[in-house]
Amino acid sequence: xxxxxxxxxxxxxxxxxxxxxxxxxxxxxxxxxxxxxxxxxxxxxxxxxxxxxxxxxxxxxxxxxxxxxxxxxxxxxxxxxxxxxxxxxxxxxxxxxxxxxxxxxxxxxxxxxxxxxxxxxxxxxxxxxxxxxxxxxxxxxxxxxxxxxxxxxxxxxxxxxxxxxxxxxxxxxxxxxxxxxxxxxxxxxxxxxxxxxxxxxxxxxxxxxxxxxxxxxxxxxxxxxxxxxxxxxxxxxxxxxxxxxxxxxxxxxxxxxxxxxxxxxxxxxxxxxxxxxxxxxxxxxxxxxxxxxxxxxxxxxxxxxxxxxxxxxxxxxxxxxxxxxxxxxxxxxxxxxxxxxxxxxxxxxxxxxxxxxxxxxxxxxxxxxxxxxxxxxxxxxxxxxxxxxxxxxxxxxxxxxxxxxxxxxxxxxxxxxxxxxxxxxxxxxxxxxxxxxxxxxxxxxxxxxxxxxxxxxxxxxxxxxxxxxxxxxxxxxxxxxxxxxxxxxxxxxxxxxxxxxxxxxxxxxxxxxxxxxxxxxxxxxxxxxxxxxxxxxxxxxxxxxxxxxxxxxxxxxxxxxxxxxxxxxxxxxxxxxxxxxxxxxxxxxxxxxxxxxxxxxxxxxxxxxxxxxxxxxxxxxxxxxxxxxxxxxxxxxxxxxxxxxxxxxxxxxxxxxxxxxxxxxxxxxxxxx
Length: 673
Fold this sequence. Notes:
This protein is mostly helical. It has helices at 18-45, 50-63, 65-94, 110-142, 166-172, 182-198, 207-232, 235-243, 254-267, 274-279, 288-314, 325-336, 342-374, 378-399, 401-430, 433-444, 450-478, 484-508, 514-521, 533-548; strands spanning 2-5, 9-12, 153-156, 159-162, 639-641, 649-650, 660-661. The strands form three sheets. The protein has a three-stranded mixed sheet with strand order 6-5-7, with no helix packed on it. A two-stranded antiparallel ribbon has the order 1-2. The protein has a two-stranded antiparallel ribbon with strand order 3-4. The radius of gyration is 30 Å and the shape is globular. It starts with a strand and ends in a 12-residue tail after the last strand.
């Protein structure tokens, strides 16, 4: 008897009684439930990145809490949701990294490299945030609160009061220039080095250790957030925020729409390529449609709760909107309300745990690419990338927060919107929406609703419209200023990367002239598709059916299998050879008859009455097996034919396929899979 394994294909198994079968089935069900729970915890974890817990509240403070959250929710549903489905589906189908997935459209391979670059840039300035939170945790834990260097006492009618606010505290300590406070920069450099080299250890085994790290960090973040919200929140502040409608006029400006759009792409981890790499690893056994919806819901809930939490903890109307606004809020609210130092420690600890999750999500697609390029030596290249990241992070910190804000508010948004726009255009319009729906049907097993197609068609229009509106306003008010130089440099860098990668893709095409090479670079590579041989065969069969079938047969591979797919395996369709490849009189060449319902052909189809199962393995009946001591140590996966093609076969194998090798003196060599 044989069973079909989802991972390993067809494998033999022994007979088990009904009681053992039920126990195995129950054990398998429990394992699937536990695996599903772990996967959902990983999904919840990536909604607690710094993009949601730190950046989004800062932008909400800048443009107005409720208007910004409404705009963000719109972009999350209109753009982030369909893009998340696209990335998860393509990652699960190809099981590739953000660069390898562009085998579908090789000429746009530069988009994958831009995603890797964007992820690395985000990781650089995120490390500054994490190091700052860790530094203040250490300084507060080992000393007094407020810090001695952040104390400036003045005599007032109510006694001595500290007149140094949190922003001045940060600028005079760990964010002070190197010439004024070199010791603080040295401490930050040590912390950045530790973070760059020890946090990536959580990705030592890539997917396995990533899941463990996310499962550990998620409950820590949730527990700390519940404690802060329960004991420090002010209901009056929340009521005032919900009743205030003074900032709705901001919706007429392009900046809030552009900021909310970029925030939706950052919160969903679309810009880094994490969803592509996770689609073939973390979510390889999940339904990509429900996973995309769950990712969107968790980000939506996390965003609203983060804004409510920080708003209720601060209790102030005027808030800092700089790059370190949440760190300033934690420190300032604790000082003004005279809290014990345990509460700022919890606040900075929340930011630290959220930052660790952020770094793991950003580094995972980078390390996935390194693993595919360098094999077992990828960890050496990961160490080199950590050394480079340490140097770049310290350099950016030494230049001040202006460079960090420039990266976060200008460079990364342009990269995020451009890569998302080209990604949707590349897969939907160049690769083809029809083939895309066929691929998603292959992954999910059901037809894709028209809603997703409409959202993919509309998304490029929305992205280009909002970015054009934002660029027009930006150029009008900043023409001649220094802001245009970073913007122009970013656009030129994008253009250079795209042209170089497109030239490499064209040069690799095996065609006769330049025009045919360019045309071929717009079509899928021969390596595009599932990597597993059996899954690839089924996928190619499905594409063949949908390409050559009429409209009524579209998406019906589970009902009937087109006879032309297997005609080369049947004698009446194989004119050059008259042998019957699938049916011989030898006992080792026969297959057991089974009543398993196949996805590719009906059992009552008359064309296949004389053909056994395509994927069933050759099994020798127990009563007809020959015991030969001389063949005890023979290789079990080679079948040697004694005579002509289709003749008697001397084989004792029980593998997936047979390799028919006849006598080389009188016959040619042929392989039958």
